[in-house]
Amino acid sequence: MALKASPDDQAHLLELQAIDTKLRQLDHRAKTVPEIGVLAGLSNEADALRSERLDANGAVEDARLELGRVESDVAVVEARITRDSDRLQGSSSVKDVAGLESELAGLRKRQSDLEEIELTVMERLETLEATLSATDEKITELESRIAATTAERDAALGAITGESSHAAANRATIAGKLPADLLALYERQRDRYGFGASFLQGGVSLASGVKLNESDMQVIRAAAPDDVLLCPDSNAILVRTNESGL
Question: Does any domain span residue 92?
């Protein structure tokens, strides 16, 4: 037996379809708010900067260890110079004095070389620390941008959620007034084909945007007002009014 429903109930399907279309649009908007793309780009930047910081921090630590080793070597040489100088002052042996003076000359040369290396490492460490500090500043600035963009995204999604909740409440009100069998058919067609109801306006089914041919229009004209018809193009419930061109 063909489904029957009053023209008024069928007309309410257009309200339901309008809300469902809006809900689908709102869902698309929620997935494509600009801030989502911006955050993805900022997140990639942050990952790259954190990788740079890891490398920069490793280089600083290596330079500090190298400087510590050089400073330790300098301290050892200085201690030996002090020891040999004291021994030289207290020695009366010509042979011992000659040996100590030769050793001191070698130690002072070693001290000079080490101090030059120490200066080079200190300069390199200063440069590396400046790079690390600059990277930290970039990360801090980027994290601030991420926080601000996240807040903007959340605000946009909050507004969309509010619209969706309001639309969903209206949908529930309209759906609650419809006959169960009519609503079930609407939901089934919408799930299968994307549209549950289509307005026939001037012979055109708005769900498909296609003007129905004359043979289809003859079938529609012959149908009773409470007959529930399906659009031959969109498979949605075809809603007829005085504007349908019948």
Answer: yes
- How many Å is the Cα radius of gyration of the chain? 42
3-state secondary structure of 216: helix
Residue that has been written with the tokens 């996240």 in this structure: 150
pTM above 0.70, yes or no: yes
Average pLDDT in the 46-58 region? Answer: 97
Whether 2 maps to a domain, the answer reads no
Answer yes or no: is 170 within a domain. yes
Token pair, residue 4, equals 């029957």
How confident is the model over 158-215, as pLDDT tens digits?
A: 999 999 999 999 999 999 999 999 999 999 999 999 999 999 999 999 999 999 999 9
Number of folded domains that form the chain: 2
**Is residue 125 classed exposed, middle or buried when 0-12, 13-18 and 19+ CB atoms within 10 A define those classes?**
middle
Tokens 């609503």 found at: 183
CA distance 176 to 178: 6
Q: Which residues contact 224 (CB under 8 A, 6 or more apart)?
A: 4
- Give 123-153 pLDDT, tens digit per residue: 999 999 999 999 999 999 999 999 999 999 9
Q: How many residues does the chain have?
A: 246
The Cβ-side half-sphere exposure at 79, using a 13 Å CA radius, reads: 6
